[in-house]
Amino acid sequence: IGCLRHLQNLDTGFYRSGVQNKTSAVQTDDIRCRGNETYGDYDFVPIYNPKLESYDGRANELRDLYVSGTKFNTHAGLFSRMGTGTSNQPALTVSNVYLINACVSAASGRYAGALMGEAHQGAEFRNCRVYWDTDGGAVGLKDALGSDVDGYRYKDSGIYGKYAGGLVGFMTGSCRISRCLAATLVYGEAE
Known about the structure:
The protein contains 3 helices and 23 strands. The strands form 7 sheets. Strands 1-5-9-14-21 form a 5-stranded parallel β-sheet, with no helix packed on it. Strands 2-6-10-15-22 form a 5-stranded parallel β-sheet, with no helix packed on it. 40% of the residues are buried. It has helices at 4-8, 69-72, 141-145, and strands at 24-26, 31-32, 34-36, 40-41, 54-56, 61-63, 66-68, 79-82, 93-95, 98-100, 103-105, 111-113, 116-119, 124-126, 129-131, 133-134, 137-138, 159-161, 163-165, 168-171, 176-178, 181-183, 186-188. The chain has 191 residues and is mainly beta.
């Protein structure tokens, strides 16, 4: 996976032929999602691929991911939802993903996380980072988002959904998160 199109092609609904039997993917280069020369301000479709068992970002940047789950009426994140830990839907392992400046919003009543909206039995997340940064280097959220954080619209910058998390919006069953961090705005709907 070396560009935005290759990443989007992992979604079986987006690109049906060629990915249906892929069980693993490796990111080989930094990818800029918004403001990208080829695709402009692209609204990423959350990846759903029930055969995918592993995604390794190899510590390459995945910058400026913008997911508007409201357009797609799905759980939102880099991945929509994955795995039940059964032979029909193996658990997914996401490793070494460095997701920078992610803006993820889910449709009403849906889950949102920068890496995955909804994770099921056996999902594993290792050595992943979700944080805000400018092109010049890491800064605090207040610096990245502006000096007036009061009244700031979290839906426009950060993670927003019924249940929301910096890494994963909602997990069921036994999932594992190790050596990961999230330093981003998170906003869940009030019940």
